[in-house]
Design a protein that fits this description.
The chain is 75% helix and 0% strand. By secondary structure, it is an all-alpha fold. The protein starts with a helix and ends in a 21-residue tail after the last helix.
């Protein structure tokens, strides 16, 4: 499977999930499901960015880009991480409003089904993206995969909150459980921020031409040592990475 095909599958999956979550979230009044819809919308935008990045990064070097276009993938990863930070801020804001003005969510069964479908779909698509991303050393696809992997955790969390609310109403009908939904949404946002921070660090590292990891430099040195006596010695080894190119 090519990088562009993998990114295209991610776009299709995220489009379907975003529309499904939005519909159920607005009908049920669940801020956690609406938060998940916002997360999926960010995933969709990230998938579109990744698709563009993998398309451009494969172009050969030209007069304006003498070292190739590999860093488009790193820029894509950073842009995707910034989008996650924005989504997390919006989710926390909505959840705080929900805590101050609580309302009872409806359509609990349908909401749980949507979250289950989202979890299964994102597990399958993220595995595919991780596999293709590692095979092709694509930062854009790996960043997109982390988007969906975060969505797996958050969808599972929302599903758990809905299940606890439903069970609580049956077992403790007088208890006030309206806080479950917004608190879960805030936890969702914190998980998203954690993923965004890691993505930012990975993307910026290569954009700033940080040296390759010690194990990779050790491999380079060992390969150079094998060239003796054609190569007598070397010093001041400098390394960097642009896209998949070292």
């Amino acid at each position: 499977m090519t990088k562009r095909q993998a990114a295209g599958i991610s776009i299709f999956s995220n489009t379907a999930l975003t529309l499904g979550k939005l519909a159920v979230g607005f009908f049920s009044g669940s801020v956690a499901i609406i938060a998940e819809a916002a997360h999926s919308a960010i995933d969709l935008l990230a998938s579109i960015i990744a698709y563009y990045a993998v398309a451009v990064s494969g172009k050969p070097a030209d007069m304006d880009h003498a070292y190739g276009h590999g860093k488009y993938e790193n820029i894509s990863g950073l842009a995707e991480a910034l989008l996650i930070f924005v989504a997390a801020g919006w989710i926390i804001n909505e959840a705080i409003h929900k805590l101050l003005e609580p309302s009872e969510p409806a359509l609990l069964l349908l909401g749980s089904i949507v979250m289950l479908v989202s979890t299964v779909a994102n597990i399958l698509v993220s595995r595919m993206l991780f596999r293709v991303g590692k095979e092709t050393d694509s930062m854009a696809l790996i960043a997109d995969a982390w988007h969906l992997r975060a969505d797996v955790y958050t969808s599972a969390g929302v599903m758990l909150s809905l299940a606890l609310y439903y069970a609580g109403k049956k077992l403790l009908p007088e208890a006030n459980l309206l806080w479950l939904d917004p608190v879960t949404a805030i936890l969702v946002a914190l998980l998203i921020v954690k993923a965004a921070w890691q993505l930012s660090a990975d993307s910026v590292r290569d954009l700033l031409d940080q040296s390759l990891p010690p194990e990779e430099e050790k491999l380079i040195k060992s390969k150079l040592a094998e060239l003796r006596p054609q190569l007598y010695s070397f010093k001041n080894l400098r390394t960097r990475k642009s896209g998949k190119t070292r």
